[in-house]
């Protein structure tokens, strides 16, 4: 059993766990898993990937089969182990005073050894069927990464992950417009563009960044790419105004009538004068009744 705390369940998390497993046990014949989207393609009509996920592609390059459980009994074996771990492991961590991921991962090897000693079953065949890995570390890093293909435009640009990669003009890159290059996204965030195994030098322009023209002028580290973008933005025509429903219906705004001027305070009676007139009226009306 291999355990590891990770921020989320993703392809890169399984790449990290697989790398540690290969380093400790070498290469197995097959892995038995559930039908999680990391292991099995959920969309049968997907255009890319050759019917394999990124994790499945990595196992294929390592000559390791992946078998997805297709029965409730097989799925139950995994879930029973998870239920045991979610109960026992949480208590073990609490007793050890561990509350962060780093300390938890340092605690797991000892816990795994104790857990396997108590609950492991003797296999029907005691032979170790793991095979020698025979893969160089650099080659293993190229396998355990996210790989896709991207189109090269006539301007030697490649769009990937909401960013624009601008290839440096050279004898190789000038032959690539209209073709697809391989993108390598590594766990540390690095991105490489390759053509037939050769790394392509490039610059990166982030489409999502928002900067003012003054920031482009003052900030020297943004480089020539943003200066070029600034020039293009200044030369571009203004954007077309999107019509509202009122504009489409032909609504015309009417001019407002001028407001009536208020009568100045001096032109009317004061409050004291008004109260005196009211009091005189009351007295007069009271005399008429008597």
Description:
With 290 residues, the protein is an alpha+beta fold. The protein has 2 domains: 126 residues, no CATH class; 92 residues, no CATH class. The chain is built from 9 helices and 9 strands. The strands form 3 sheets. Strands 3-6-7-8 form a 4-stranded antiparallel β-sheet, with no helix packed on it. The chain has a 3-stranded antiparallel β-sheet with strand order 4-5-9, with no helix packed on it. It has a two-stranded parallel ribbon with strand order 1-2. The longest helix has 25 residues. It is flat.
Topology (SSEs and partners):
Elements: H1 11-25, E1 30-33, H2 54-61, E2 65-68, H3 72-96, H4 101-119, H5 137-143, E3 146-151, E4 157-160, E5 163-167, E6 180-185, E7 191-195, E8 198-199, E9 202-206, H6 213-218, H7 223-235, H8 245-248, H9 271-289
Parallel strand pairs: 1-2
Antiparallel strand pairs: 3-6, 4-5, 5-9, 6-7, 7-8
Write down how many β-strands occur, each being a DSSP E stretch of 2 or more residues.
9
The helix/strand class is alpha+beta
| Main β sheet profile | 4 strands, antiparallel
Strand content: 5-15%
End-to-end separation in angstroms reads: 111 Å
CA radius of gyration: 37 Å
The string of secondary-structure elements, in order, is: HEHEHHHEEEEEEEHHHH
Q: Indicate how many domains the architecture comprises.
A: 2
User: What number is the mean pLDDT?
Assistant: 81
User: Which stretches are poorly predicted, pLDDT < 50 over at least 5 residues?
Assistant: 216-222
Give the % helix: 40-55%
Task: Enumerate how many helices there are, as a single number.
Answer: 9
Give the strand order of the largest sheet, numbering strands 1, 2, ... along the chain: 3-6-7-8
Shape: flat
């Amino acid at each position: 059993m291999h355990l590891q705390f990770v921020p989320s369940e993703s392809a890169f998390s399984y790449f990290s766990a697989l790398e540690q497993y290969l380093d400790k046990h070498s290469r197995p014949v097959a892995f038995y898993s559930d039908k999680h989207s990391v292991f099995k393609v959920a969309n049968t009509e997907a255009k890319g990937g050759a019917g394999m996920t990124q994790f499945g592609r990595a196992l294929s390059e390592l000559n390791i089969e992946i078998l997805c459980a297709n029965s409730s009994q097989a799925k139950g074996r995994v879930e029973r182990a998870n239920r045991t771990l979610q109960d026992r492991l949480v208590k073990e961590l609490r007793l050890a005073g561990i509350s962060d991921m780093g300390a938890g991962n340092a605690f797991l090897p000892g816990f795994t050894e104790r857990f396997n000693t108590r609950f492991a079953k003797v296999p029907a065949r005691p032979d170790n069927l793991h095979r020698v890995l025979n893969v160089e570390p650099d080659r293993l890093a190229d396998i355990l990464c996210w790989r896709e293909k991207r189109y090269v435009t006539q301007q030697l640009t490649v769009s990937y992950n909401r960013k624009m990669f601008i290839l440096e003009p050279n004898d190789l890159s000038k032959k690539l417009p209209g073709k697809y290059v391989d993108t390598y996204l590594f766990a540390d965030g690095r991105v490489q563009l390759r053509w037939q195994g050769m790394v392509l030098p490039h610059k990166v322009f982030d489409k999502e960044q928002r900067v003012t023209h003054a920031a482009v002028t003052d900030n020297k580290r943004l480089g020539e790419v943003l200066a070029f973008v600034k020039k293009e933005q200044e030369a571009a025509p203004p954007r077309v105004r999107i019509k509202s429903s009122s504009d489409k219906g032909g609504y015309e705004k009417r001019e407002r009538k001028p407001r009536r001027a208020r009568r100045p305070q001096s032109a009317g009676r004061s409050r004291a004068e008004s109260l005196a007139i009211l009091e005189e009226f009351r007295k007069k009306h009271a005399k008429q009744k008597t």
